[in-house]
Specification:
The structure holds two protein chains of two kinds. Chain A is an alpha+beta fold. Helices cover 31% and strands 35% of the residues of chain A. The longest helix of chain B has 34 residues, at 319-352. Chain B contains 13 helices and no strands. In chain B, 80% of the residues lie in helices and 0% in strands. Classes of the chains: A alpha+beta, B mainly alpha. At the A-B interface, α1 and β7 of A face α1, α2 and α3 of B.
Amino acid sequence: MKKRLLPILIAVFIIQLFVPIYMIIGKYDTLRTGEEFKFKVSPVDPYDAFRGRYVSLNARQEVSGGGKYGIIAIDTDGYAYIETITDEKPKSGAYVKSSSRDWFTMPIERYYMDEKLAPKAESLTRQRDENKITYVTVRVKNGKLVISGLFIDGAAIEDIINTLAD
Amino acid sequence: MFLRVTLAFLPLVISQALAFFTIKRRYDSLAWRESVAIVVTASVFAAIAIVGQVFHLPGDYAAYVLTCGLLSLPMIYILDAVTPLIVYYWTILNWAALEQSEFSALILFVLFAAGAAFVFAKRNQEGARLSYMTWITLITGFVAAFILGDILYCSLLLIVLCYFTLLLSVEDLPDSLHPPFKVIGLTGGLITLAVLTYSGMWEYQYEYIDIGGSLFVGGMLIAALFFTVKTFKRDKLKFSFLLSMIFVCVMRYCWDLLQLAIMPYEFIFMILSNLILLTIGIGFIVHGVRHTSLLTTNIGMTSVCTLIVMRFFDSEMDIFWRGVVFLALGTAFLLVNLKILRIKKRPQTGVEQ
């Protein structure tokens, strides 16, 4: 009985490890070799029971509608935005794949932070000067998008909070 | 980032090593199997959550819980553990409730069967574990039926009544499995029948008829009827009760399919439901008194009293008369119970003499 179970157990372990590893490989490659963009965002701070605290983000979108892919354009200030939404996979240029099936949704939804830092980040962004711009830096490759940082007027949110704490 | 990714995998790898050790050296220990299985399950949840956090992944909660549930499922079978089964059921119910598509209804059915198959495979074992697994599975089945009804645009009361009828009609079960099937089937069935006695329950319905939903409920009804026929020779009370429940199911099915939420049908169905519950209640009382069974009598008394009390909410009865009826019901309860107790005492006195 036990002898028969061992190969099955090993196969299950491989699958259990493969799923998170597969998640990492695609994201890590995008972070290393993807093209960098800055998206303006407006943050609010909710709580995810499983994954801890995060800053919920709404990315700037000039258009909305049904479609799987959003084509990225850059405005005169250097910030990225979604210019067009299409169902066909673009053959060239930077594009993002939607995070939902029925409606185009930017995969910029959450910026996870330390449980203690996230509420401070939220109050900081609420109190912010109207002239200061909140944005995320992302890496994009083959439609995959990975968030690399959250910034307020060029300063990383973690640095601002640490400075305030000091 | 490297540190956080390492932290994500560390508990998973350690728990996998523990599972390997358990199979090799401690497979006979139930405590080891159960605890290691739940540790592996928790580690899978943690690993995927931490990876999602490190890369700021969008929060697809449904996909997350389903992935974790599916990755934990084999541990139930391999380590012969019950605790992860609860987690697994919880993940599939969450996923189906959030997905809400016809395809997810079919998948939910398959996923539930994958968990229930473990309990079925253990059906001939004795002990509290089997009973515990059965309770969990049947309660999950009720929630799954509810979700399926919602996804497939069925009358929710119809689908749960069919489910309870099916549970109650199943025969040839090992002794340890009888209580969960009987208690859930009987209690749920009587409560659903009581709810259906309200006129409002027959006034509103989905205007859209889903073929998949109709076929699914039809299938459940046929299965319940098949098992009910088998009970005819063994237990006449159970057979009559099941037949009444099936009659209400068929009535509700026709109401749903033929879109009969109109006068006079809704009134006729409401009256019939009241009469059926009243007949069931009286039937239980008569059977209980004849066979001097306090439990059966009290089930019947409770059904009749519930029906009468529920009608208080529909009628404009004066508060004085409501009080009188309450007292009359209480007295009837007391007298019937006293009578049964006296009958039960009689043979003992005879032996003493």
